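MODEL INPUT / OUTPUT PAIR
PAIR INDEX: 1
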Amino acid sequence: MIAVALLYGPYNAKVVNVIDAETLWLKVAVWPGEDRTMKIGVLGVDTPSLNGKCDAEKLMAKEALEMTRAFVGDLVRLNDVRKSKTNGKFYARVRNRRGKLLSEALIEAGYGVPYRKGEKVNWCP
């Protein structure tokens, strides 16, 4: 089990870059007049890797990345922000301007599965 610290939220954030379908560089408004740029992992979803084991996984990862870019646009809202005590990475539920969850959209589109700790998904045929 990953130990996490639950932080306050929600936070509004400007999208700086989409690294992959489930990892974003965001400029987060943490306090009035104070922003922090940080890498945020998307809670609740596992997607194919851009460095996947086969061409099918790599292609699917590129398509998922493009879907994430289109879905999030330039602004998102973060809820349930957590910082892992084991790796220091931040995770959050990411919503677009319409309030839709990115994790659910990726799963519904077939580009992701619900994240289950310790389970590896085989994206290759």
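PAIR INDEX: 2
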Amino acid sequence: MINAAIWFGFVAVSASLILSLYRVLRGPSMPDRIVAADTLYVNGIALVVLASMFFADSLYFEAALLIAMVGFVGTVAWCKFVTRGTIID
């Protein structure tokens, strides 16, 4: 039963990744693209956690934490670039 739920999660998160990628590529404005990129990071974390559950390996949780940190820093840098025109003051 849990395997069916994990496979359903893989399908749902993969569909969400595809839709978020579409919004990053075809977003009407830059803030929409930033939000979609942030959603991609969150979906990537969900996919890694699902893989960790599927393979029963806790090493993937460290990878999910790394994706979360890089995603947060990337989103902040992108927002700062859009609002101020530069990343480093």
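PAIR 2 NOTE: The radius of gyration is 15 Å.
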